[in-house]
Amino acid sequence: MEKNRITVVEGDITKQHVDAVVNAANNTLLGGGGVDGAIHRAAGPGLLAECRTIGGCRTGDAVITRGYRLPAKWVIHTVGPVWHGGKSGEAGLLADCYRNSLRLAIEHDIRTIAFPSISTGAYGYPIDQASRIAVETVAEFLKHDQSILEVRFVCFNERTYDAFERALKEHFQEL
Ligand code: ADP
């Protein structure tokens, strides 16, 4: 069952003991504020050095690096869409972030993965819509994949946690 493999916690993604953490990066991959800054600070300078060799990432795509000083072995960097009102393909791009990150995870035999709430900080995506897309996309992906054991949504505040819990409940009651 996909439901048992999706968890929601309130906490700091840099502290998660999972195979991979996902970074809500920007197109340059050279670090930024929010969760991106926190991941780079916790991982140390090796992470930025490896990111420099990649040369950037398109919105909706994902790339993978080592985790350096993080408890997680891997960091999957994905670039969420900036919210421009919802008519600029934001929903599709946000779903792409979750799908492409999970695809990379499978390719690297990653069994446990933690996501932050992509795009809902500086990029301004409304949390109710973003959490629904996150849950639906991950649940759909897990239907077709048995290798991933846990997808953990790590919410940095209570409002985000509540939105993800609600999205999870709504999604699995609808089925
Ligand atoms: P974006 O630019 O994609 O919106 P942000 O980093 O600004 O990315 O915000 C994305 C989400 O990550 C927000 O919900 C923010 O509160 C959260 N966040 C910030 N720091 C952390 C952290 N250390 N662990 C988990 N989530 C975090």
Description:
The chain has 175 residues and is of the alpha/beta class. The chain is built from 5 helices and 6 strands; from the N terminus they run E-E-H-H-E-E-H-E-H-E-H. It has a single domain, classed as Leucine Aminopeptidase, subunit E, domain 1. Adenosine-5'-diphosphate binds next to helix 1.
CATH topology: Leucine Aminopeptidase, subunit E, domain 1
Structural class: alpha/beta
Strand content: 15-25%
Average pLDDT metric: 97
Q: Please, what is the CATH homologous superfamily? A: Leucine Aminopeptidase, subunit E, domain 1
H/E order of the elements? Answer: EEHHEEHEHEH
Question: How many β-strand runs?
Answer: 6
Number of domains: 1
Query: Could you say what the CATH architecture is?
Result: 3-Layer(aba) Sandwich
CATH class: Alpha Beta
Percent range for helical residues? 40-55%
Biggest sheet: strands, sense, closure? 6 strands, mixed
Give the count of helical stretches: 5
